[in-house]
C-alpha cells in the first residue's frame, strides 16, 4: 500500500494561501499532510535517492499529489537574505522529488523547469490577440523623460518582485551613468479601472474585479475583491488566456488586466504562475481552493 497522504501541502507556515487550501481539504475529508516551514519550524525531511524514499519526520511518505509554494513570508518578515535561501532549498528539494515521479499530480508540472520572462510574455500575449498597453523595456533616462512629457507612465521590475510605481515619482531620484539607469525596467502607459484578475485552474476560469484607489492594489489594505462570472468578461478573453497558458505549459495561473483610459478596453498586464489566492477565495465562497482540490484529488 502506498504510504500516503493523498495530498502533501508544502510551503511557509505564515502563508495564508496554504492555510486556505488546507481548510478546504479538511472540509472535503481528503487525506492530507502539511509540511510547513518558517522561522521556528524546521520539519525533518530526507529524500533517499537510492531507496527512492521520501521521509518526513522519520516516516516514509509517498503522496499522490503535491501543492507547493515557496515561502516568501518568513523572508519578508525577517528582511534578511537567509530565509529566502532556506525557502529555495526547501522548494527545490520537494519539487525535485515530485518532478522525479510523473505519477504525482503537480500543477504546472510541464513548465516547472522554465522561468517566466515577463517581457517575452507581453510580446507573446500581443501575438495571441490580447490588447497590451504601449510598453518599453529600457534603462534610457532621456527616452523616459521624453515619454513622461507625452503621457502618464508606470514602471515595474523586469523580473517582478516589487510593486508598480508612478514613473514621475521614481525617475527624478534614479541614479544614472552617462544617461543610463542601472538596469532595464518595464515601463507602460498608465491604465485605469476596472482592474480584473482571471484565475485559470486546470481549464476552468474564475474572474474577479479589484476595487482600490491605489495604483497597485497590493500596496493598500483598502481593496475590495468582487467575484465575477466568465460571462462578465469580454468575448474571447478566456480563449486568449487559454492559448497563452497552453503555450507557456501552465495549468494554474492568474492574469491581470486593466482598462485603457482612451478606449475602455481591457489590456493585458502580466500572468503569474504561483499567484496569491486566499483573499480571492474567501470573497467567493472557496471556489478557488475547491478547484485546486478537484485537480489534486479528483473524485
Based on CA inertia axes, which overall geometry fits? globular
Largest sheet: 5 strands, antiparallel
> What are the segments in which pLDDT stays under 50 over at least 5 consecutive residues?
none
Helix count equals 9
CATH superfamily of the largest domain: ATP-grasp fold, B domain
Q: How confident is the prediction overall: mean pLDDT?
A: 92
CATH-level-2 architecture of the largest domain: 2-Layer Sandwich
Report the sheet-strand fraction: 25-35%
Number of strands: 17
In total, how many domains does the architecture comprise?
3
- Briefly note the CATH topology name of the largest domain: D-amino Acid Aminotransferase, Chain A, domain 1
Structural class: alpha+beta
The value of Rg in angstroms is: 21 Å
Classify the helix fraction into a percent range.
25-40%
Order of helices and strands: EHEEEEEHHEHEHEEHEEEEEHEEHH
Structural write-up:
The protein is 29% helix and 30% strand. The mean pLDDT is 92. The chain has helices spanning 16-27, 73-78, 81-99, 118-127, 141-150, 167-170, 237-247, 278-283, 287-296, and strands at residues 7-12, 32-37, 45-48, 53-56, 59-61, 65-68, 105-106, 135-140, 153-157, 165-166, 176-177, 180-189, 192-201, 204-211, 224-227, 252-259, 266-272. Helix 1 (16-27) packs across helix 9 (287-296). The protein folds into 3 domains: 7-106, no CATH class; 118-130 and 191-296, D-amino Acid Aminotransferase, Chain A, domain 1 (2-Layer Sandwich), CATH 3.30.470; 135-189, no CATH class. It has 299 residues and is α+β, with helices and mostly antiparallel strands. Strands 8, 9, 10, 11 and 12 form a 5-stranded antiparallel β-sheet that branches. Strand 13 (192-201) and strand 14 form a beta hairpin. The radius of gyration is 21 Å and the shape is globular.
Amino acid at each position: 500500500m502506498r504510504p500516503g497522504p493523498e495530498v502533501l501541502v508544502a510551503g511557509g507556515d505564515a502563508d495564508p494561501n496554504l492555510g486556505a487550501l488546507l481548510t478546504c481539504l479538511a472540509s472535503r475529508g481528503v487525506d492530507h499532510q502539511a509540511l510547513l516551514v518558517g522561522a521556528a519550524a524546521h520539519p525533518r525531511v530526507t529524500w533517499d535517492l537510492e531507496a527512492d524514499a521520501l521521509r518526513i519526520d522519520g516516516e516514509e511518505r509517498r503522496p499522490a499529489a503535491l501543492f507547493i509554494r515557496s515561502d516568501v513570508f518568513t523572508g519578508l518578515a525577517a528582511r534578511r537574505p537567509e530565509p529566502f535561501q532556506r525557502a529555495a532549498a526547501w522548494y527545490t528539494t520537494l519539487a525535485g522529488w515530485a518532478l522525479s515521479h510523473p505519477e504525482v499530480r503537480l500543477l504546472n508540472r510541464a513548465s516547472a523547469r522554465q522561468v517566466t520572462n515577463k517581457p517575452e510574455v507581453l510580446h507573446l500575449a500581443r501575438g495571441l490577440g490580447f490588447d497590451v498597453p504601449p510598453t518599453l523595456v529600457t534603462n534610457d533616462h532621456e527616452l523616459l523623460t521624453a515619454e513622461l512629457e507625452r503621457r502618464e507612465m508606470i514602471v515595474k521590475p523586469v523580473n517582478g518582485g516589487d510593486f508598480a510605481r508612478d514613473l514621475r515619482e521614481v525617475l527624478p531620484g534614479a541614479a544614472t551613468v552617462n544617461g543610463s539607469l542601472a538596469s532595464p525596467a518595464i515601463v507602460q502607459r498608465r491604465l485605469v479601472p476596472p482592474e480584473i484578475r482571471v484565475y485559470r485552474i486546470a481549464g476552468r476560469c474564475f474572474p474577479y474585479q479589484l476595487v482600490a484607489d491605489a495604483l497597485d492594489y497590493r500596496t493598500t489594505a483598502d481593496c475590495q475583491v468582487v467575484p465575477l462570472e466568465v460571462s462578465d468578461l469580454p468575448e474571447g478573453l478566456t480563449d486568449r488566456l487559454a492559448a497563452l497558458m497552453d503555450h507557456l505549459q501552465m495549468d494554474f495561473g492568474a492574469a491581470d488586466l486593466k482598462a485603457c483610459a482612451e478606449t475602455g478596453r481591457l489590456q493585458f498586464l502580466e500572468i503569474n504562475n504561483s499567484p496569491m489566492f486566499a483573499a480571492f477565495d474567501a470573497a467567493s465562497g472557496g471556489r478557488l481552493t475547491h478547484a485546486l482540490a478537484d485537480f489534486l484529488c479528483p473524485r
